[in-house]
Design a protein that fits this description.
The protein has 216 residues and is an all-alpha fold. The chain has helices spanning 9-12, 14-44, 52-73, 81-99, 110-133, 139-168, 172-202.
Length: 216
């Protein structure tokens, strides 16, 4: 067997050798996440659903859809971003329902954070739908993508503040039952925050605008 040095990783370079590997890892990672949340959804559906359980199942469903689309189309595609926004909306709605059990005196300041996060999510949805409906090009496209990155960073940071406050101010006897959910949300939004902050600084992760109808 003959090996050409020009075909090895050192000569080909990271540009040609790393993206396929990263794409394969991302596909299986998001695929496994989709299977996990779909399994959790089906497992919970076996029992009687009451109260916040309905919102939890909705969040499971939204996360499974987002992970499925991310595995098929990629996590940074234009069509994937709205599913991520809806996933965040489902989980924030669940946090809002959980915060309702906190005593009014301890909830001071939390409604303001919920309002700020809700405003960010609403802005994201408007931009997501506008981006899907129109074809952006040139400087306008770059400005929109930069705005979307900043909104996602703000969303993740605000959601982490909500997780901290809701868990920290919950009744001691109820913390054990919500600990796993809060841990999962901390990991999810903590990952998002670091990912998009890195993308903002290095511009490594950016949604690719759709091609126009004339192929441009």
């Amino acid at each position: 067997m003959f090996v050409k040095f020009s075909d090895t990783g050192a000569h080909v370079g990271e540009f040609d050798s790393w993206p396929p590997v990263n794409g394969l890892i991302a596909f299986w990672s998001y695929g496994l996440a989709a299977c996990l949340f779909a399994s959790l959804l089906l497992w919970r559906l076996r029992n009687r659903i009451e109260g916040t359980e309905k919102l939890l199942l909705l969040a499971y469903f939204a996360t499974a859809v987002w992970a499925t689309v991310s595995a098929i189309r990629g996590p940074t595609e234009i069509v994937t971003i709205p599913t991520e926004t809806l996933r965040n909306l489902a989980w924030v709605t669940l946090l809002y329902a959980m915060a309702g059990d906190i005593k009014s005196g301890a909830r001071r300041g939390i409604p303001l954070v919920f309002g700020a996060v809700a405003l960010v999510i609403g802005t994201q949805l408007v931009i997501n739908l506008a981006t899907l409906a129109t074809s952006l090009a040139g400087p306008v496209s770059e400005d929109v993508l930069a705005t979307m990155r900043l909104l996602r960073i703000t969303m993740a940071a605000g959601s982490l503040v909500l997780v901290h406050n809701v868990y920290g101010q919950a009744a001691p006897q109820s913390r054990l039952s919500i600990r796993s959910v809060m841990l999962g949300l901390t990991l999810m939004w903590g990952y998002d925050l670091n990912l998009y902050e890195l993308a903002r600084r290095l511009r490594l992760v950016r949604p690719r605008p759709r091609a126009t109808s004339d192929g441009a």
